[in-house]
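Why do we care about 3D structure at all? Because function follows from shape, and shape follows, mostly, from sequence. That is the central idea of this module. The next example makes it concrete: a single protein chain, its amino acid sequence, and then its structure expressed as tokens.
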Amino acid sequence: MRDHLATDELSIGDYVLTGGELAAMVVIDAVARLLPGVLGDAASSADESHSHGLLEYPQYTRPPEFRGLRVPDVLVSGNHAAIETWRRLQALLVTAQHRPDLLTADHLLALREALAPKRSKRRGRRSEPPADGPAPADSEPQSTS
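And the structure:
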């Protein structure tokens, strides 16, 4: 029948459902959210999974600490450039972990650059590590006395 009556075929994934109704609802929802006014805010869909070829970065809400889990400091810092950098790195990491097939050569290069140790322009030395990171091998231990 499909070969004679269907004009197009659409897949919503590699799994089996109990009927076509659920698949139809998925398609309706995916298409409807693209229509103006459906989401309430036109910018809502601009920064979610797959909007930039990557899965979405982790989301946090209030309170800033819940059951011993804290929101990363960068997200409450007010530094919008640092927040955007964090979100981009997290999106790359989440995509690499869950859907590596989505990563392009540009994504892999960005991920490599983000995770590579930073080098100082002077004498090829590594820049200062984060406060909670290890000291560079060529630095002298600091006295605690």
